[in-house]
Recover the amino acids of this structure.
């Protein structure tokens, strides 16, 4: 059972597949100064909630790309539910491959929210995003960051190498090194982390009670036990999460 399959089960009840609340998701839209007719490319778009909600509220158009055979149909259903399927489309594909194909370009906004693994990290993902961005456009990068006092044991417990992410100011420096100017940001807090992480516990618990004989039950039971412990002991305190609003820096 791979990590994607585990997340498809754990996030079955989520609309937003990251620690932003609905209010912060719409705050991010306001910060981006969205207006009708703008085009957004969402890489690793998950269930498409951001793109669909913004299309409904602000009249933008867009395209989402995700590798999950579970999430993409849900995104399409959400677009139909909100009446934006004529302006929003979703593609089942590897996000990096989709950009490298050259079929996506000239977008006003390119987003990759919490999935910079598609480009091997922040720098590689920023490079991918800029290929699809129009001159003067905006990129949205969702990325975890470490607290300044994160202990060594937290990295092991969270199964995340220390250098996979950096501190908040270190994230700023990585953005600058990638040729980006940080304009704004929307950060999760302890409560929004809880709503995202803890809600998964209930979902997985329900799945386990209804799938006791499933061949992946033991793996999901271990996933749940680890998720609870690491969030309570380390993640909530030492791992921040935010969306960073950027544009190409001037020379």
């Amino acid at each position: 059972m791979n990590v994607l399959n585990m997340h498809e089960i754990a996030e079955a009840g989520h609309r937003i597949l990251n620690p932003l609340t609905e209010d912060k998701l719409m705050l991010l839209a306001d910060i981006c100064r969205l207006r009708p007719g703008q085009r957004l490319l969402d890489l690793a778009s998950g269930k498409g909630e951001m793109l669909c909600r913004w299309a409904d509220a602000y009249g933008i158009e867009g395209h989402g790309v995700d590798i999950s055979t579970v999430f993409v149909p849900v995104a399409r259903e959400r677009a139909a539910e909100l009446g934006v399927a004529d302006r929003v489309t979703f593609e089942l594909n590897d996000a990096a491959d989709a950009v490298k194909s050259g079929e996506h370009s000239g977008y006003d906004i390119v987003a990759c929210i919490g999935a910079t693994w598609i480009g091997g990290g922040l720098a590689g993902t920023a490079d991918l995003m800029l290929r699809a961005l129009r001159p003067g456009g905006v990129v949205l990068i969702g990325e975890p960051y470490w607290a300044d006092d994160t202990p060594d044991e937290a990295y092991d417990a969270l199964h995340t190498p220390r250098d996979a992410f950096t501190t908040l100011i270190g994230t700023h420096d990585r953005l600058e090194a990638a040729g980006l100017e940080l304009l704004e940001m929307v950060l999760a807090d302890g409560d929004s982390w809880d709503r995202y992480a803890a809600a998964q516990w209930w979902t997985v618990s329900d799945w386990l009670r209804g799938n006791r004989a499933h061949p992946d039950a033991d793996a999901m039971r271990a996933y749940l036990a680890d998720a609870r412990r690491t969030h309570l002991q380390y993640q909530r305190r030492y791992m921040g999460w935010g969306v960073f609003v950027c544009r190409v820096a001037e020379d």
Remarks:
- The two ends are 46 Å apart (CA to CA).
- The domain at 3-42+95-248 is CATH 3.40.50.150 (Rossmann fold).
- The chain has a mean pLDDT of 96.
- The chain has one domain: 3-42+95-248.
